[in-house]
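RECORD TYPE: inverse folding
INPUT: structure tokens
STRUCTURE:
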């Protein structure tokens, strides 16, 4: 059982960076101070805010809070690294200045990390604030690592990271990566064999609003995420030309705007990638093959629904029936909920 006494050397160092975050800052801080687990320090980096952020921070009289003021705005990656370098805890907990942590979040995550010394990064499931939307990200290490090939399966502000992983493996944030820095970090951690785990409970409320970094800099966010994604695919795509890589990344990014012939090419490319993984042994052979083929099947279903709807003169109902409604041997991988999901995703692309 983890002790809740406040020690000189805290077990957890919470690191939060904030820039002009007065609107939701108080709620975020209170959710940390009200944790059932008490053995932590709370490092808050004020990243050159010019609103009331500093006044809000200064109003707190809690000895666990340590405020670091940047002389100017230097960005999230550099600010988080400053916080980590000043941390005294064995675990680094991330928190964003507009999210809300469940009171038992730290208690549950610390127990998991203390009972499972092999786990280096521990996230949680999360809910979107003020919406009936729940994210159940993959739980196991292999499922998380396979998901990294296509998207970010770990909520940044939900994680607890073992500090020795950061120190020993140089897993600080890349200060050249201004956005999607968490995705970049998870990919580098996976390449250094760090073990991941997501607690299958909703221990974070994640807020979406217009002033959030991902909302204000959506285009840049996608560009940096793409650069990170290419790192994890790099070794698997050595045999491909630049044009072939571009076609394959249409599939990886779930981009349905490609010609029918390109879709046939992608199927061939996937087979090559599976063989390449078999030779390089980057991922477990069967799990990798099953996952990539499933993703390809799902992509095919979306592709034919999408194009049948918007290009009926090019794609006949026969194409639609053969490639979406057929009960071939691979159809067993899609259940009715997933078929509905395919329809929802493709229709949402039409009405953006």
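DESIGNED SEQUENCE:
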């Amino acid at each position: 059982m983890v002790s809740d006494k406040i020690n000189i050397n805290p077990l957890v160092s919470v690191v939060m960076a904030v820039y002009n975050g007065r609107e939701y800052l108080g709620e975020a801080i209170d959710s940390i101070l009200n944790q059932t687990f008490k053995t932590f320090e709370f490092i808050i980096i004020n990243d050159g805010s010019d609103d009331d952020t500093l006044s809000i921070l200064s109003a707190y009289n809690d000895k666990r809070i340590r405020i670091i003021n940047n002389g100017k705005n230097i960005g999230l990656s550099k600010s988080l690294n400053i916080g980590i370098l000043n941390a005294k805890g064995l675990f680094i907990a991330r928190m964003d200045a507009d999210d809300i942590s469940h009171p038992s979040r730290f208690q549950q995550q610390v127990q998991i990390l203390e009972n499972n010394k092999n786990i280096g990064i521990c996230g949680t499931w999360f809910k979107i604030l003020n919406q009936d939307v729940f994210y159940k990200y993959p739980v196991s290490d292999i499922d998380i690592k396979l998901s990294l090939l296509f998207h970010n399966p770990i909520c940044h502000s939900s994680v607890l990271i073992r500090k020795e992983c950061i120190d020993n493996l140089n897993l600080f944030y890349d200060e050249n990566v201004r956005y999607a820095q968490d995705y970049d970090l998870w990919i580098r951690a996976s390449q250094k064999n760090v073990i991941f785990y997501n607690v299958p409970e909703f221990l974070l409320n994640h807020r979406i609003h217009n002033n959030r970094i991902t909302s204000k800099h959506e285009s840049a966010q996608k560009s940096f995420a793409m650069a990170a994604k290419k790192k994890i695919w790099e070794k698997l795509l050595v045999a491909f030309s630049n044009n072939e890589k571009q076609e394959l990344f249409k599939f990886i990014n779930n981009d349905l705007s490609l010609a029918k012939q390109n879709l046939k090419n992608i199927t061939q490319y996937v087979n090559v990638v599976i063989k390449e993984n078999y030779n390089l042994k980057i991922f477990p052979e069967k799990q990798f093959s099953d996952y990539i083929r499933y993703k390809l099947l799902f992509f095919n279903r979306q592709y034919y629904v999408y194009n049948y709807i918007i290009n009926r003169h090019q794609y006949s109902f026969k194409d639609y029936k053969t490639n979406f409604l057929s009960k071939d041997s691979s159809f067993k991988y899609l259940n009715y909920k997933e078929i509905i999901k395919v329809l929802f995703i493709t229709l949402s692309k039409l009405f953006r």
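NOTES: The CA atoms of residues 39 and 194 lie 25 Å apart.
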